Amino acid sequence: MKKTLPALLGLSTGLLFMALHFEEDFLERIVKKMDAYQQLFIHEKVYLHIDRPHYLPGETIWFSAYATFAASGTADTLSRLVYVDLLNTETQEVLFTRRIRMTDGLGQGDIFLPDDLLAGPYRLRGYTHWMRNFSEEHFFYRDFHILANEPAAAPNPALTSEIDVQFMPEGGYLIQDIDSKVAFKAIDSQGKGIPVTGFVLNQSNDTLAGFRTEHLGMGQFMFKPQADQTYRIQVRKPDGGMASFPFPVVKQEGAVLIVDNLSNKQNVRVFVRSNSADPVEMALIAHNQGDITYANKAAISSKLSLFTIPRSGLGDGITHLTLFDANSRPIAERLLYNRLVEPLTIKIQSSKNTYKIREKVDLTLEVSDADGKPIAGNFSVAVTDGNQASIDANAQHIVSYFRLEADLRGGIEQPASYFDTSNPNAARYLDLLLMTQGWRRFRWEDVLKDQAPEPSYFVEQGITLTGKLVRKNKRAAGIMPLTFTLLQKDSSQMFVTGESIATGEFALYGMDVTDSTDIMIQIADSKKAVDVKIQTDRWMAPPYGKVPFRAMNAQPLATDMLKRAQEYLKIERTIRENREKLLQEVVIKGKKVDPITSDSRRALYKRPSSTLAFTDRNTVGALTIFDVIKNRIPSVQVLGSGPDRIIQIRGNSNLRGTIEPMYMMDGSPVSKDVAMNILPSSVESVDVIVGPAATVYGDQGRGGVINILTKNGNPNQSFSYQETEGSLSTRLMGYDPQREFYAPRYDQQLPEHVRPDYRPTLLWAPRLRTGSDGKATVSFFASDATSTLQIRAEGMARNGMPGVGQAKVVVVE
């Protein structure tokens, strides 16, 4: 804790305040519980800066990952691995997963979108292993659209006249006979804020209060509920129609708080009142990301009491106020924003304002803090064609996410607008937002439990391998010595020794492995290895979850721009295909033999019934070979997902159900588990053998045969992948390798420069570092499009302070 308990328990001042000498027990207990919770459950935040708001099939998503500690806002130095998932929102499937190496809270990666990916809503999700201990709401989400790869604009969802209006009393509840503020939020069928007016009626249809929205469907009004009265709310919709909504719950007894966070620059004033005739002991606690910054007790009665809280002690950002009764029960809560430290200022300057097509553009970033002092830090910069990727200035960015969105439930419309210093109403609208959004970081019920739950997921400081030793009789294998042999890409080997625990479980933590590596696990004592099987755990991505989709509206490209983008992608696709074809032809000409019938790995069946070549395009993002062959080999059905998936070759079943195929690797039998662990990028092709050709494998081949041909070709060149007692060979997924963003240099004469250039992203610089002078430079070349280029830089200083900057340059003929 930044402050001691006595310092937190200062005297309050107010209109009327009865300072009584109660025992400190219940307030001290709350403070200590919070401190213990914060030490056990350190919270992390992850943010992804992507190069554009939407994409076409065949394009690449480029992103930078930023991770911070929630409490301090400083760079996350614990978790060294961030997972980034691409999810299909319509099917709720996890399509691809990237494992991003994090260094001092920074990482980078990309996801290639296959040419056959369907248009529609998609989601990027970022998280650490440790973040899985908490609700899925803590994950980072960036929702977007993959646009239809055709000139016709994608239809917008049908709009209806249906609206929803929610009413939220300040503090949580209305209390009988006490004036309270009531905030409300009106949204349409797409979840967007809409303007409405309305009024509160009693059972006699008398109008007691009127209200109207102020900003993005939000507003507020004062109301005092009376005893023996019932109320209803009527709202006039934008189309002129009327709608009825239930009135908030009114409690007979309790206390309310009214927060004044706008009128005084030095202090936050909190007014508290109960409807109890006698003083009731209560405590007001303020915390910033779990760090308690204010705590005080008072005797609250029907007369108004005031807590005056100095802003300087509250910390920067969202402050959570909670009023507790003497039984340590939270009875009223309110969020407020305390703006003490301004984000970084990022100025982006170009050498001139207007450029010719294919002309070199030089950019200079100049980063400073609120006092104008130069700041050293790491930043990512995207330059996009404004005709193809229009960026909404009020959309999410690193400042709005780290300092606001990451701590609130639900989607926030135009989040960046609350940090627009040119908007005189930004502070008022932000205060209104915090009356209508819920806190997501933790619940007091969890903090105040007598015994905190043990975390289920650990902090990953590298690549992890876990597994278990299992005896054939299912009994625990016990403690056994183990050796781990890792085959590096340069053919060198690394040896690690250890042992399993009493339950047979084992783990390797913190490994520095990129892409994939072969690993052999052996029980060092051959006598103990009898009847013991080694199993490794498969990593499973979290399910899609229940967080609603909330992407910005997809802006369809103009027909001429979409046509140009298609032409550019078609050229890129042709180049990739020709490169793969040329490589195959070179291999065939070198051998001067039939590459299929001469392959010893196909000796028993000569020619497969069908085969699928594994390429860079169809394996990108796939976790298993079954992710690749699914829907690509017509005769093979892949049902389900994860380790429980079922593979069936059509026509191979009987009265007992599905008959799964026999699996081989490079012509040698392997189990389904081994097949599941083979890295797709290491596979050359997969053969499917059915019918008479499969009978040579006897009863094992009655469900067909799947032969996995690896790029190594010779099984002796790598581990054999044969399962034996006391040993297991498998492949370990490491960090995803970092690809370099390609951009042509038109100051050089190259043959490929004759093709047209209509790239939507002209520059992606994922790691641009400013020095002690706060400056960094970067260059790129304009494309063939006459357009306004949009430049956006995001990032953070070494102390975790975020910043964002934007600029534009014009390209002419």
From TrEMBL:
Ranges for the TonB-dependent receptor plug domain? 621-705
Q: Name one Pfam family in it.
A: Plug
Keyword Cell membrane part of the UniProt annotation = no
Among the GO molecular function terms of this UniProt record, one is: siderophore uptake transmembrane transporter activity
Report the principal subcellular site. Answer: membrane
Membrane topology qualifier: Multi-pass membrane protein
InterPro entries from the entry?
A: Plug_dom, Plug_dom_sf, TonB-dep_rcpt-like
Q: Where in the cell is it found?
A: Cell outer membrane
Indicate whether Signal appears among the record's keywords. yes
What biological processes does GO assign it?
A: siderophore transmembrane transport
Q: Name one GO cellular component term.
A: cell outer membrane
Q: Which UniProt keywords apply?
A: Cell outer membrane, Membrane, Receptor, Signal, Transmembrane, Transmembrane beta strand, Transport
Q: Which family does it belong to?
A: Belongs to the TonB-dependent receptor family.
Its recorded name reads: TonB-dependent receptor
